[in-house]
Amino acid sequence: MKPSVYFLTVFIVLLLPTAMPHDYSDALRKSILFFEGQRSGRLPIQQRMTWRGNSALNDGENLETDLVGGYYDAGDNVKFHFPMAFTATMLAWSSLEFGSYMSPNDIGHNLVALKWATDYLLKTVSQLPNRIFVQVGEAQPDHDCWERPEDMDTPRTAFALDAPQPASDLAGEIAAALAAASIAFKQSNPRYSRILLDKAVKTFQYADLHRGSYTDNLDVNQAVCPFYCSVNGYKDELLWGAAWLRRATGDDFYLMYLVKNRQVFGADFNYFEFGWDNKVGGVNVLIAKEVFEKNVTALTAYKDTAEKMMCSFLPETPGPHMTYTPGGLLYKRGSTQLQNTAALSFLLLTYADYLSKSSQQLNCGSLKFQPDSLRRIVKRQVDYVLGDNPMKLSYMIGYGDQYPQQVHHRGSSIPSRMVHPNAFGCVQGWSIFSSPNPNPNILVGAVIGGPDVDDTFIGGRTNASETEPTTYINAPFVGIFAYFKSNPEFS
């Protein structure tokens, strides 16, 4: 098939109406509920994912500090602070851009999920300006065992960096998360909002003053890598943190920082990416908002780069293009495919919103597109994830009639304490891991890794790349589901 014919075929697939109706309200509720299954620490009485129990109640003990709480990032029992902070940023951004489409109950639960993360992130930067906490748990011993969080007997070592050791990527992302959350809580909890913003400013100062990657430190590198190494470097997080602080404060210091460092920090390089490691695509879209709304011409270059990214999603435009599977899924290869689909779809929908609110079109060379052209692409992604795909599977656990039953998730796959009060040991758990039986506890709302480039999905608990959920897959989908719930013209 010639490339032009391939692009046309993919574009037609993207524009096809969905083959089945979807309940986006249900998907939204479940996408937020999922975070309760990832909680670490002492669970509240309002806990709805009742098969989970208290866990990791002594975290931080080796460094004589309180690091209890937060989220396990995926199907393991380690708390990696870098992706956790990105998760918080995306939950906050979902609230800010799409909270108006949520019911009071939904926005309330989303803020609860966000606060569970930010309460913990405040602990990670509680000893600034001298120390920032990086991670709790040792990845290799944890991955050598298959045991529910409530039974953990693997080391819960906490890792930290002390000034002047660099941590620009980690601190920059935490600053972004706290700044974004400060806006999200500004009306409902102004005192908490001020605390978040104050700590965001101090965290960004550490990031900018001690430039470099947090994985430059050998001890941290051995603890974090290869799971959450900062492959993309640290400069994008400095822009990301500054962009969120500019939005939260309106301070011209951050405006000048963004103008001065755009090219130096590579905001016009590798701008087709967005996720827990690479923030460049998100930086450009986030800053474009200020150009659309306030015509801040000093930031126009960010908007122009964001527009180039948006054009790449449309196959008939000139220039480089994003890749889609034959079934229409936006595809960028990674350890878990749907993390890319979720994050990039969020940017598409957000940019479409900016265009609509400013009564503008997307300009791609000589071609012009209405904002709905971008929304239709996102709609195709959402419907694909919820079951309108060649496998006829919902990749959200607990949504629809057909979804994978063997999820790569320790707590979900092992009987809960209510059913089996005695602990499962490290070795005993592996017999459950290899079992063909369905997971006894449904991790409702979890969006898992998803299919391959040819739309195939093998599944199975042993196939982590396809069946493992992560918090940073779900967080962008919260805002996306909220939008389509309230815009029936796309249903």
UniProtKB/TrEMBL annotation:
The lineage of its organism: Eukaryota, Viridiplantae, Streptophyta, Embryophyta, Tracheophyta. It is an enzyme of class 3 (hydrolase). InterPro entries: 6-hairpin_glycosidase_sf, 6hp_glycosidase-like_sf, Glyco_hydro_9, Glyco_hydro_9_His_AS. Keywords: Carbohydrate metabolism, Cell wall biogenesis/degradation, Cellulose degradation, Glycosidase, Hydrolase, Polysaccharide degradation, Signal. The active site is at H408. Its EC number is 3.2.1.4. It catalyses: Endohydrolysis of (1->4)-beta-D-glucosidic linkages in cellulose, lichenin and cereal beta-D-glucans. Belongs to the glycosyl hydrolase 9 (cellulase E) family. PANTHER family: ENDO-1,4-BETA-GLUCANASE. It comes from the Eukaryota. This is Endoglucanase. The keyword Zinc does not apply. It comes from Arabis nemorensis. The keyword Membrane does not apply. One of its GO terms (biological process) is cell wall organization. Residues 1-21 form the signal peptide. GO terms for molecular function: cellulase activity. Residues 24-480 form the Glycoside hydrolase family domain. It holds the Pfam family Glyco_hydro_9.
